[in-house]
Amino acid sequence: MLMRTDPFRELDRLTQQFLGSTGTWSRPTPMPLDAYRTGEEYVMCFDLPGVDPQAIDIDVERNMLTVKAERRPRHESDGVKWELSERPLGVFSRQVVLSDTLDPDGISADYDAGVLTLRIPVAEKAKPRRIAVNRKDDRKQIQA
């Protein structure tokens, strides 16, 4: 039901290894994602440790879900001398194409312990339904 839309993810990872986190790479860093179905909904979990919930933006346009988040430095003071900075800062973005069998109007979002969880209900048209089978003799009686 979900399709991966970032074929250059591995290329991004390799480029970041060579350029380092301070390299001039303008493409946003993708965020790790788990997705699974449970009952009548899909659940997507994005790892966003250290991100303020106010810095998370979720948009749906047609069937394209976009999640953007910004991790800002904790100490922006001029008096801070960094000894080590390995945690990436800046804008992170991830796009996922949602199947037509999902209902984007019913998406709910929760953020807890650095994990953004989106719940997307299965659309009514995609839910299994039972179709009654009529006997041919019964149809003739109804038409008469």
TrEMBL record:
CDD domains: ACD_sHsps-like (cd06464). PROSITE patterns: SHSP (PS01031). The keyword Methyltransferase does not apply. Keywords: Stress response. It comes from the Bacteria. Residues 24-136 form the SHSP domain. Gene3D superfamilies: 2.60.40.790. It holds the Pfam family HSP20. InterPro entries: A-crystallin/Hsp20_dom (IPR002068), HSP20-like_chaperone (IPR008978), Small_HSP (IPR031107). Belongs to the small heat shock protein (HSP20) family. This is 18 kDa heat shock protein. It comes from Actinacidiphila bryophytorum. The lineage of its organism: Bacteria, Bacillati, Actinomycetota, Actinomycetes, Kitasatosporales.
